[in-house]
Inverse folding.
């Protein structure tokens, strides 16, 4: 079977941020979403019309980075339920025709993982320490970090332990990086893959897939004078410039994915993996999806594109060309749990939402697979979370607002927090929800044919009927402020300018906001024409 006929090739995947989706049993009303909460709300995803869900980490974890700090890769954290809850979720999803992708975090463990605890208890130079990157410090007393690398979350990437050695953590100090040059590490993760494949998962989202290997010398990073001191946090990850990065994108990382591909192919049913790889170029992103490596990689170039017809056209064209060299599927994503929600990025308010819907409609016409982030189907915006409620480790390390604002628990029903998110006892969610979300709940939007939810449902249903073949050629060009995409006899037009323009001829299959019959396409609007 060719790739273009596999389920994931043109799948629409919905990202569930587990602690913010829905709070069900067994800990009702603790204000934290969990696996039974997801299971109970799966019909929402079926009605939305997505093909699959990706669930962020729900494994045992001290939750310093909300599950991206894993203490046990083969168990469910009691906050979220237990293994039987995962099995029930998977079975119900499959009954509803939904595939399930789980998150795999191979770059680092939690500092509470049994390996790291053993490493701390052992001597420098011991086999226990050799699973991580422990080094002696620099300077006469060894009290300076072994190199100049910074943590993605701010500050040094090194922390010193009691006996004077330092360990590397590219993220928080509670997330020590593993040493993938140690064969024990690869063997451990093959076991983890098999554990979840045996349980029946359909795929994996690979966290920090461009990490894992560091240049063996652990040499200093060359940092040009003009970029020194620039904060590197979630938002600025999208505007990366080409730089010297001895900690990312090392060639050896591709051997890991060749090994995993073989494991995935031993299993029936088209199991897949998608890389979260913040690569510097579209070409290096394509290396992760060569035929013997992973199946997909997130296309962060699309997410980082400003509201401009010219830039959208350029990114569409270069993304399609880059994946073609790897004979793989393009992917498209506008929002996730690490970045500012896209309506807010496009200016917020009514304009931001209109642009957000237009960009989504353009995305859903593109070939390959699209990833949606929970809450975008409700038109949610980034929330300004009050400092005392912030939990993102990057907030604690840098004093910058961090990523909590895109992680606010979903509003399901009712007119006041917790909007049906949690148990009936009214316990408030782990981040406070805005008090003006009453009109944005699933319940309110289901009753309104012009709502963002109704629009997403229509868009996904129309995509299914219009784009039936995955192999159609796609072209994208900018005509002044208009983005024009052509695929499968459908023309997508997005007006990124400030003025209405004459609507090109053709039947309007769907528009991102209402188009009146005056023959004009308003600003901040997209249409599919045939
Ligand atoms: C990825 C995740 C992010 C997490 C980081 C460290 O970028 O998407 O949420 O903080 O990896 O695991």
């Amino acid at each position: 079977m060719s790739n273009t006929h596999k389920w994931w090739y043109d799948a629409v995947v919905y990202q569930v941020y587990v602690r913010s989706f829905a709070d069900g049993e067994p800990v009702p009303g603790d204000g934290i979403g969990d696996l039974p909460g997801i299971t109970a709300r799966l019909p929402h995803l079926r009605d939305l019309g997505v093909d699959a869900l990706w669930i962020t980490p729900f494994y045992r974890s001290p939750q310093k980075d909300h599950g991206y700090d894993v203490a046990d890769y083969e168990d469910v954290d009691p906050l979220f339920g237990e293994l039987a809850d995962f099995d029930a979720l998977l079975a119900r999803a499959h009954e509803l025709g939904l595939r399930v992708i789980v998150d795999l975090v191979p770059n680092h463990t939690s500092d509470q993982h049994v390996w790291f605890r053993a490493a701390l208890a052992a001597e420098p130079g011991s086999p226990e320490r050799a699973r991580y990157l422990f080094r002696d410090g620099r300077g006469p007393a060894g009290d300076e970090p072994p190199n100049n690398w910074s943590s993605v979350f701010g500050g040094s990437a090194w922390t010193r332990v009691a006996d004077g050695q330092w360990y590397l953590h590219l993220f928080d100090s509670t997330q020590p990086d593993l040493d993938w040059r140690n064969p024990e590490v690869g063997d451990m993760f093959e076991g983890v893959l098999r554990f979840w494949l045996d349980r029946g998962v359909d795929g994996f989202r690979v966290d920090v897939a461009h990490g894992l290997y560091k240049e063996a010398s652990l040499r200093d990073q060359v940092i040009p004078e003009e970029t020194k001191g620039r904060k590197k946090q979630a938002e600025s990850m999208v505007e990366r410039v080409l730089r010297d990065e001895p900690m990312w994108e090392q060639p050896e990382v591709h051997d890991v994915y060749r090994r995993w591909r073989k494991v995935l192919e031993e299993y029936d049913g088209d199991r897949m993996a998608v890389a979260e790889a913040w690569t510097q170029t579209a070409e290096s992103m394509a290396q992760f999806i060569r035929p013997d490596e992973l199946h997909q990689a997130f296309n962060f170039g699309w997410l980082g594109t400003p509201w401009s017809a010219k830039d959208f056209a350029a990114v569409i064209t270069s993304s399609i060309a880059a994946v073609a060299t790897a004979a793989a599927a393009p992917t498209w994503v506008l929002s996730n749990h690490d970045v500012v929600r896209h309506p807010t990025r496009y200016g917020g308010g009514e304009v931001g939402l209109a642009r957000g819907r237009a960009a989504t409609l353009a995305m859903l016409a593109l070939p390959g697979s699209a990833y949606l982030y929970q809450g975008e189907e409700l038109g949610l915006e980034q929330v300004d979370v009050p400092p005392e409620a912030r939990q993102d480790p990057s907030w604690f390390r840098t004093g910058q607002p961090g990523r909590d604002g895109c992680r606010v628990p979903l509003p399901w029903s009712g007119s006041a927090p917790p909007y049906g998110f949690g148990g009936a006892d009214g316990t408030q969610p782990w981040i406070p929800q805005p008090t003006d979300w009453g009109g944005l709940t699933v319940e309110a939007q289901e009753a309104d044919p012009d709502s963002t939810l109704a629009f997403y449902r229509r868009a996904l249903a129309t995509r299914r009927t219009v784009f039936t073949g995955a192999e159609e050629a796609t072209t994208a060009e900018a005509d002044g402020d208009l983005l024009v995409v052509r695929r499968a006899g459908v023309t997508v037009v997005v007006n990124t300018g400030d003025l209405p323009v004459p609507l090109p001829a053709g039947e309007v299959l769907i528009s991102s906001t209402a188009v009146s019959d005056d023959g004009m396409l308003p600003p901040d609007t997209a249409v599919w024409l045939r």
Q: What stands out?
A: Residues 183-199 form the longest helix (17 residues). Confidence is low (pLDDT under 50) at residues 231-240.
